[in-house]
Each structure stands twice: as C-alpha cells, then as structure tokens.
Design brief:
The chain is an alpha/beta fold and about 300 residues long. The protein has 2 domains: about 180 residues, 3-Layer(aba) Sandwich (Rossmann fold); about 130 residues, N-(1-d-carboxylethyl)-l-norvaline Dehydrogenase, domain 2 (Orthogonal Bundle), CATH 1.10.1040. It is built from 12 helices and 10 strands. It has a 5-stranded parallel β-sheet with strand order 5-2-1-6-7, with helices on one face. Strands 3, 4, 8, 9 and 10 form a 5-stranded mixed β-sheet that branches. Strand 9, helix 5 and strand 10 form a beta-alpha-beta unit. Helix 8 packs antiparallel against helix 9 and helix 11 runs antiparallel to helix 12.
C-alpha cells in the first residue's frame, strides 16, 4: 500500500515515521524547507515508547505529485485544509482513500465536496507531540492511538488493507465500526477543553480552583454535549464521565494545544473547533451561550494577530 502522509510535523511525523520505521511504503508531502531539513538530518522521533532515526525519509513537493496513492493521511491544521486539498488533488485516484486526522467534523464536509464522500474515511488520533528547535518529533507521553473507519461502519476491503498496513507499526491502531461517534466524542471534549483553557488563559487545575471555574467548565461541556445530541451523536455516559473527570481534576496542569498556540501568537483553529460547534447549535441557542463567548474571545485574538502581521 502506497501511503502519502501530508506533513511531517508532530502528528504526521510521528505516525508516518512509525509506519516508515516498520517497513511501510510512506512518502511525506512537505514544503521545501522541511524537505531540505529531513534530507540533512533525517526524521527523528524521541519517545518513551522508543526513539527512531530515519535517515532521508522519502519526500515529495506538491508540484511533483503526479501519481495516485492508495491512502492519503491528512495531519494538517484545519486552517491549512483548503490549500492541502489543492496540493493533494493529483494524488487522488479512483481508488484512493483519504484519512483525515483533524479535530472536529467540518473537514468531512469540505473533503466530500472536493473529492466525493466515497474517498473519505473517518479518523482521529490521540497524541501529545511537538517539534523541537531541531525539527525532531518529541512525543510527550505514551498515548499514540489512531482510530479509523468507514463512516457507515462497513468492514470494507480497503478497511481490511489499511488495518493490515497499520498493524504492528509502533502505535495503537484502532479500526472502528462507529468512527463518527468516536470523532464526536473527541470533539465534544476538545472543544470544552480548548474553550475553557483559552477563555481562562490557564490550566485545568487553576480553573477549577477559581470561584465558578468548575461550574463554567462543566457548563461548556454540557453545551457541547447538547450540540452532539441534536446532531444525532450524543456521547455515552462513559465518555462524559471521562471528560468531566479530566476537566475538573484538582491540580491538573493540562491545557489545550490551542491555548499554547495562542500564547505563542500562532494561528489557531477557532473556526473549525469552536465556531463550527457553535454553528451546529443553531442561532436560537446562542444567547447566554458560553460557547459563543469563547468564540468571540478567539476571534478577537485572531483580529489582533492579523493586524500585527500587517504592521
């Protein structure tokens, strides 16, 4: 199976690197600067689950994509998706499967519109990773799962081939017959975590210790739960209990990656993670919505960042 991994950053570099490490046919679609760095230093992964150094991993630039791949693994940020869809178009053939690992659900609508729903799988990953100053992937804990599946739950032939390709590849590969629910469960939790930590500009432990902080975190989770329920994907009680526990853990230093991006002045996925959740709530539910307050807060940040970039 020929696999194209879009990006060799923290997420794409980790999962693509593990696949390459275990002998899979992987090529990374990257920009010129990242291609040059990988050619010089290789792809390096530092992890408690095992380090890896992959000299000169196969890379390709968008202008050089001319042949279709069997599987395209999308690990880009949501704000890059429009450009990525244009870049990968030559690599999408009649039998190509696209597996997006973005947060939220809007990516499915955009990919369906561009390539057709028959090409697009459901997927998500759970990993805490970043690139260090030398461009190496730093895996920050031991979680490294990748969930994937046909959106109608079928055990299709391509699902069997992908499952075989991901098996024993150095991460937790989780084929799912209910991948849309898996994606909604993660989105509900992530929107709550990103929303409350960005709004309060602090970690979970500080938020729940502040007057009204715990109630605000749980109120935001409940708003997101209601959106999922109205969309036909209400989280189960076990998923909600896990989310409540994480969002209210005393002393927790947990923050969302969106907060870290915000604190460093980077682009954020405000529209995709928070805005789309709010849009699915419907206009009549926006009044007195904490989700709406979070979204306004993030859009103010984006406006200020845009002005600074033009200065």
């Amino acid at each position: 199976m020929r696999i194209l991994v879009v990006g060799a950053g923290a997420t794409g570099g980790y999962f693509g690197g593990r696949l390459l490490q275990h002998g899979r046919d992987v090529t990374f679609l990257v920009r010129e600067t990242r291609a040059a760095a990988l050619a010089r230093h290789g792809l390096v992964i530092h992890s408690a689950t095992g380090d890896a150094h992959l000299p000169a991993p196969p890379t390709v630039l968008a202008d050089d994509l001319h042949q279709p791949y069997d599987l395209i693994l999308l690990s880009c940020k949501a704000y890059s998706l429009e450009q990525v869809m244009a870049d990968i178009a030559p690599a999408v053939g009649p039998q190509t499967a696209i597996l997006p690992l973005l947060n939220g659900m809007r990516q499915l609508d955009l990919l369906d519109a561009r390539f057709g729903a028959q090409h697009v799988l459901g997927g998500q990953c759970v990993i805490a990773a970043t690139l260090d100053a030398q461009g190496a992937v730093q895996h920050l804990n031991q979680s490294h799962s990748l969930t994937f599946g046909e959106r109608d739950g079928r055990a299709s032939e391509r699902m069997q081939r992908i499952t075989q390709a991901f098996a024993d590849a150095g991460f937790d590969a989780r084929p799912s017959a209910n991948v849309l629910q898996d994606m909604w469960d993660k989105w509900v939790f992530l929107a709550s975590l990103a929303g409350i930590t960005c709004l309060m500009r602090g970690p979970v432990g500080d938020i729940v210790a502040a007057p009204g902080g715990r109630a605000a975190a749980l109120a935001l989770l409940e708003e997101c739960r209601v959106v999922a329920e109205r969309s036909g994907h209400a989280p189960g009680e076990a998923a909600l209990q896990r989310a409540r526990g994480v969002l209210t853990e005393p002393g927790s230093t947990l923050t969302a990656s969106m907060l870290r991006d915000l604190q460093h002045g980077h682009a954020i996925e405000a529209d995709h993670v928070i805005g789309d959740m709010l849009a699915r709530a419907g206009h009549k539910h926006v009044e007195r919505s904490l989700l709406a307050v979070v979204y306004a807060h993030l859009k103010v940040y984006e406006a200020g960042r845009a002005r600074q970039s033009m200065a």
